């Protein structure tokens, strides 16, 4: 799978982020994207082939696998990575829009197009809220779909055409669980970073506005 | 596997490292990442397919494989490499922060700034002193800790560094104690020992770099102390100047206060 696009997007976003934003980009890039590509993808590569049920009935394995893994862990992980990185595009687009406007009017409208103030601040805050929202949605989805973050060794299945309740064995359950825990931990870390960046920005700009008001009153 | 991006990030750090740091980076890339990507992947590629147990009981193979390999060697090495490379990011961030401050000074037109243009700031190589020294030293310390933790985890999980040919398994649903055979055990042992050896070399390089930095730090301190002893007049002249300035400031403050109160 080619993640070059996401990598370029994240590098582009880095330019217009606050310090906490840059830490977020580094965490997503190294502890999530790189771990996904370098390690996690291969664990789930042959999950269907290695899923084995104690029965010879044709179709039973397929049906049971489909019942227990409606969407594979690894696909959910990939979707989460993509959805969580996309809100940063809003910021990139807004900066590009500002630069375009400056070119069009042939004059400097802002101190610097990447300076986080005014409209760009709103866009940035919205992107932070969206990122946090997506993280939480995916964590909840994982929890609901798989009844927690545990991967059992054995699941019991009795869906047609399985003739009775058969034992089905999942491959590499411990390794999968270790990487799922890693995913949850990094997700939570990213949520914390987003929330602290949100509070930092709101606090900083409230102070600025308050200071401006005080100066105006004095004048 | 996409290690190219990590290579780009760490390559940037290379400029600001000591000579031992540069050797460490080379060892990391050539003897660990490249070997992992080029060779080890092929060797461990078919590990579960070719893990065979002497039973037809469905599920027994899966359960035994999971019992003996809670996390595959390859994944553990990949995680180790990622964690060990991460502290270098701290240095990269610190350097980027310094560059940002210098650029700000330059833009404000500060006379203290000694650069002629922005390009010079971008290309400048910072010396490892001051706060950067602390960041660099902590990054080496964390590297050492991660290396040691992973090596210990490896040893603990696999009872040493040998890959046995045969494992006996009696986890349910295996009907009794069955023989399970690992694929390519000798080749895996060779690669494991190789990776452990290179890890140890990296640990030694990190320890050497740490000692070098500490020695440099203490030498610099003793030089400064020596300079202070030999040139006390120089210090005294500066002190008297500062005292005069302090008096001027306090006088002007007193005048202002008196002015306000009246």
UniProtKB/TrEMBL annotation, chain A:
Question: What region holds the Connexin N-terminal domain?
Answer: 42-75
Localisation per UniProt entry: Cell junction, Gap junction; Cell membrane
Membrane-spanning ranges: 21-39, 77-97, 118-143, 177-203
> Mind telling me which GO cellular component terms the entry cites?
connexin complex
Q: What is the species of this protein?
A: Steatornis caripensis (Oilbird)
Does the record carry Transmembrane as a key word? yes
Keyword annotations: Cell junction, Cell membrane, Gap junction, Membrane, Transmembrane, Transmembrane helix
Instruction: State where it is primarily located.
Output: other
Annotated Connexin cysteine-rich domain ranges read 134-201
What is the name attached to this protein's record? Gap junction protein
Alphabetical list of InterPro entries matching this protein: Connexin, Connexin_CCC, Connexin_CS, Connexin_N, Connexin_N_sf
**Single Gene Ontology BP term?**
cell-cell signaling
On assembly, the entry states:
A connexon is composed of a hexamer of connexins.
How does the record classify its membrane topology?
Multi-pass membrane protein
Q: Give GO MF terms, alphabetically.
A: gap junction channel activity
Q: Which PANTHER family match?
A: CONNEXIN, GAP JUNCTION BETA-7 PROTEIN
Top-level taxon: Eukaryota
Q: Which gene encodes it?
A: Gjb7
- Sequence similarity: Belongs to the connexin family.
State what this protein does.
One gap junction consists of a cluster of closely packed pairs of transmembrane channels, the connexons, through which materials of low MW diffuse from one cell to a neighboring cell.
Q: Which PROSITE patterns match?
A: CONNEXINS_2
Automatic annotation (TrEMBL), chain B:
* Alphabetically ordered keywords of this record: Cell junction, Cell membrane, Gap junction, Hearing, Membrane, Transmembrane, Transmembrane helix
Q: Which GO terms describe its biological process?
A: cell-cell signaling; gap junction-mediated intercellular transport; sensory perception of sound
Q: Where in the cell is it found?
A: Cell junction, Gap junction; Cell membrane
Is Transmembrane one of the keywords? yes
The record, for Pfam families, names:
Connexin (PF00029)
Instruction: Please describe what this protein does.
Output: One gap junction consists of a cluster of closely packed pairs of transmembrane channels, the connexons, through which materials of low MW diffuse from one cell to a neighboring cell.
Return the PANTHER family for the record: CONNEXIN, GAP JUNCTION BETA-2 PROTEIN
Q: What is this protein called?
A: Gap junction protein
What lineage, starting at the top, does this entry show? Eukaryota, Metazoa, Chordata, Craniata, Vertebrata
């Amino acid at each position: 799978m080619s993640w070059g696009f996401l990598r370029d997007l994240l590098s582009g976003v880095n330019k217009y982020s606050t310090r906490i934003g840059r830490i977020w980009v580094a965490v997503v890039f190294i502890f999530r994207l790189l771990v996904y590509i370098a390690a996690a993808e291969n664990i789930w590569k042959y999950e269907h082939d290695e899923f084995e049920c104690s029965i010879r009935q044709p179709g039973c394995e397929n049906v049971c696998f489909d019942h227990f893994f409606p969407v594979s862990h690894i696909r959910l992980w990939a979707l989460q990575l993509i959805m969580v990185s996309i809100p940063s595009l809003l910021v990139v687009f807004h900066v590009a829009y500002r630069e375009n406007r400056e070119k069009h009017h042939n004059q400097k409208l802002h101190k610097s197009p990447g300076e986080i103030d005014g409209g760009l601040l709103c866009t940035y805050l919205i992107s932070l809220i969206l990122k946090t929202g997506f993280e939480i949605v995916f964590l909840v989805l994982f929890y609901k779909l798989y009844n927690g973050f545990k991967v059992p060794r054995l699941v019991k299945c009795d869906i047609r055409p399985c003739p009775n309740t058969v034992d089905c064995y999942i491959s590499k359950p411990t390794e999968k669980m270790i990487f799922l825990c890693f995913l949850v931990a990094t997700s939570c870390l990213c949520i914390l970073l987003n929330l602290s960046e949100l509070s930092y920005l709101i606090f900083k700009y409230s102070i600025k506005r308050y200071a401006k008001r005080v100066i105006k009153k004095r004048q | 596997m996409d290690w190219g991006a990590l290579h780009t990030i760490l390559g940037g750090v290379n400029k600001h490292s000591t000579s031992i740091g540069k050797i460490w980076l080379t060892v990391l890339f050539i003897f660990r990442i490249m070997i992992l990507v080029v060779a080890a992947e092929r060797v461990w590629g078919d590990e579960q397919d070719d893990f065979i147990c002497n039973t037809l009981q469905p599920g027994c193979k899966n359960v035994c494989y999971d019992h003996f390999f809670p996390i595959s060697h390859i994944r553990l090495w990949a995680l180790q490499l990622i964690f060990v490379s991460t502290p270098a990011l701290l240095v990269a961030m610190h350097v980027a922060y310094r560059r940002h401050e210098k650029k700000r000074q330059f833009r404000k037109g500060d006379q203290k700034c000694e650069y002629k243009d922005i390009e010079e700031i971008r290309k400048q190589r910072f010396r490892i002193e001051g706060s950067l020294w602390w960041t660099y030293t902590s990054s080496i310390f964390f590297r050492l800790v991660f290396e040691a933790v992973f090596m210990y985890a490896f040893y603990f999980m696999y009872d040493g560094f040998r890959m046995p040919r045969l494992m006996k398994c009696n986890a349910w649903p295996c009907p009794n104690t069955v023989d399970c055979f690992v694929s390519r055990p000798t080749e895996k042992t060779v690669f494991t020992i190789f990776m452990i050896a290179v890890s140890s070399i990296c640990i030694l390089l990190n320890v050497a770099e740490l000692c070098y930095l500490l020695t440099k730090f203490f030498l610099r301190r003793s030089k400064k102390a020596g300079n202070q002893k030999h040139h006390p007049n120089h210090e005294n002249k500066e002190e008297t100047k500062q005292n005069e300035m302090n008096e001027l400031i306090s006088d002007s403050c007193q005048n202002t206060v008196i002015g306000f109160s009246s």
